[in-house]
Every structure is written in C-alpha cells, then in structure tokens.
C-alpha cells in the first residue's frame, strides 16, 4: 500500500513537471512568434516607405523644341513632370546653331521631343551627337506621311525637302500625340493609365473641331483657292480643296513663275468663287496686286505660332472657313 502510494506520488510529480515544461515551451514559442512578426513588419515597413518615396520622387525632365510642342506634351503629362522648351519663335528655331554645351545640357534630360519634319533643319545632326545614356530623343512625326516642298528650301548647306507643317492634317496631329504618349509611358510605366486618359481627352477635344472643320470645308467644294507657295499644302490636301498655286512671296521668281502668274486671268475669268488663302500678312501684302486685280476674297490660315495651343490653330482656321462659307 505504501509502495503503491509512493509510486503514485512520483507519477504525479512527473506529470506536473511535464505540464510545466509544456506551458513554458508554449510561452517561449508564442513570444518568439510575436517577436518574429514584429521584425517582419519592421522589415516590410521601410520597403513600403521607400517605394512610396520613390514613386513620389519620380519626376521626368522633359524638353521640347518650342512652345507649341511643349503644349502638346503638357496635354499628356499635365503637371506630373518638369517640362520646358528651347525656342520662342520659328526664326529662332531656323537660325539655331548648336554648341558642345547645348549638346551636353540636352543630354542630361530624360526626354527631348522634336518635330523632326524639317521644322528643325539641324535636328538630325544634333540628335546624333546627343549622349543617349539618359536622354530619349523622340521624333514626333514618326509615322507621318510627309509632303515634299515643290520648291526646296536651303538651310546652310542642307536642302530642306519636307514640308514641316504636317499638323495641319488633323490625323497626323493624332499620330504625333500618340508618339508623345507612348514615349512618356515607356519612361513612367506606373502611370500608364493616367497618360492614356489625358491622351484620350486631348484627342476628343480636337475631334470636336475636326468635325466642324470638315463640315465647313464641305460647304466650300465649289470654291477655288489661290495660294502663294507650299506652306498650306497639308491643309489644302486634307480638306480636298481645288487649288491654284503661284510663287511670289519669298521666292526668286523664274520666268515660268512669271508666266503662270500672268495666266491667272484665264483661270479666274468669270469665276466669282475664288478665295486667296495666306498664312502671313507678309504673304498677303506681296500679292495685293493679284488680289485687287481679280477682286479676290481673302482668308488667313493659321499654321504656326509659338504662343498658342493646337486647339487655337483649329479654332482660328474654323473661323476663317465659316466666314468664307457665310459670304453671300
């Protein structure tokens, strides 16, 4: 009996020790688990903060040739990135002579958008010299079917064959905007949807004017348009206008030019639906004799300005076409 009780006592003490050890083990394991969780959180939190900081600090440095192109880029990026432009006028673009410093400065940017259609006669050589380590030079006219000048222009020793004013064809403007949007998305892929939305809005805004311009142009199919030079070629071909082209302002006239100008009498005789279209006051003034001789109605087509947006060009040209169509 005594032996049995002693044995039972020993078993009880042994079981008690097992229970104690078991609870100690559970406590240590739980504490270690909590500590591990805290450590994991501490390891994750800096990564999350760092990611947020990186996203916040991402800011592209973008440069464009001029303000018209700058405004097109801004339609895509809004205020998301720093954007600037190089030139404030067409003459400054044309007369630009780049230096080693300008090459180095532009090479430090993230993106350089240029027209690439003859607007910058120095662009091909300039872009070739840029260090491509960081900068992404983007020719926004890539994919545009360019029109050649009937009369080539000269820039230093370079012959300019392509007419630069492709954006007068609204479909080509859309191609240029697509090139801009894609280039920015490639550099900042995390905000692809943001740039896509901005692109869609810009295109929809333009399409409002595109429809109105087509409607106004359709009312003028019976008219003949006299133009001096090649600057309006994209505009005239896009709307399918009947055209008589002369060469007068800014050209060294050949005998053939003079003869063609004299033949205008036969072409315009007994035709009261003739409009003289011009893109500058200088162009109009150079042709005052012809305008007065044939009592031509006139209309100005906006092709370029450093101080306006693309929408402003469309609005101006719509007003011109509508005013012509409304003349009785």
What attributes does this structure have?
Rossmann fold, 4-stranded parallel beta sheet, disordered N terminus, 13 helices, 328 residues
Overall residue-averaged pLDDT value: 85
The radius of gyration over CA amounts to 35 Å
CATH architecture of the largest domain: 3-Layer(aba) Sandwich
Instruction: Note the total helix count.
Output: 13
Low-confidence stretches: 1-11, 34-46
Taking the sheet with the most strands, its summary is: 4 strands, parallel
| Biggest sheet strand line-up | 2-1-3-4
Q: Total number of β-strand segments?
A: 10
How much helicity do the residues have?
A: 40-55%
The computed structural class is alpha/beta
Annotated CATH topology of the largest domain: Rossmann fold
Distance between the termini: 134 Å
- Percent in strands: 15-25%
Q: What top-tier CATH class of the largest domain fits best?
A: Alpha Beta
In CATH, what is the homologous superfamily of the largest domain?
A: Nitrogenase molybdenum iron protein domain
The coarse overall form would be: globular
Q: Tell me the count of domains.
A: 2
| Helix and strand run | HEHEHHEHEEEHHEHEHHEHHEH
